[in-house]
Amino acid sequence: MKIPHITSGIISILIGGFFYFLTLDFPDRNTMEVGAAFLPRIYCGLLIIFGLILFIQGILDKEKSEKQWMTIGYALISMVIVLAYILAMPFIGFYISTALVIFGLLFFSKVRRVATLISVPLGAVLFVYIVFELLLKVSIPLGSLFL
C-alpha cells in the first residue's frame, strides 16, 4: 500500500468533485450548443477518474516503500510553495511571482544548473507575456506593489 498515492488520489477526487459542484451554478443554454460548464466538467471528470486510478494503484500495490514519508514531505513542501505563490501574486504580480515559484520548485527539485534555474522561469514568463498579453490581449495582473 502506498500512502502518497492513496492520499493524492483522495485529494484529486475531492478537488474534482468540488469544482464539478461549482459548475452546477453556471448558466445553462436550452439549445444544443455547448454551455460554459461543458469544458470545466470534462476537466473535473478527468481529475476524478485519474484520482480514482491513483487511489486504486495505491491500494493494490503491496510493496512497502521506506521513502513514503519523505515523498509526503516533498508533496507538502511543494503545496506550501504553491500556496505562497497564490498569496503573493496579488501583491507582487503574476510575472514576478511566477518566475519565483518556478525557480523555487526547480531548486527544491534539486536542479542546480544555473542556466536552467534562470532560463526556465524567464522562458515561461516570456511565453505567457507574448501569447497572452501581446497576441490574445489578455491583461495579466501586475500586483498592487507596482500600481
UniProtKB/TrEMBL annotation:
InterPro entries: DUF1468
Keywords: Membrane, Transmembrane, Transmembrane helix
Name assigned to this protein: Tripartite tricarboxylate transporter TctB family protein
Domain DUF1468 as annotated: residue spans: 8-141
Membrane-spanning residues: 6-26, 38-60, 72-102, 114-132
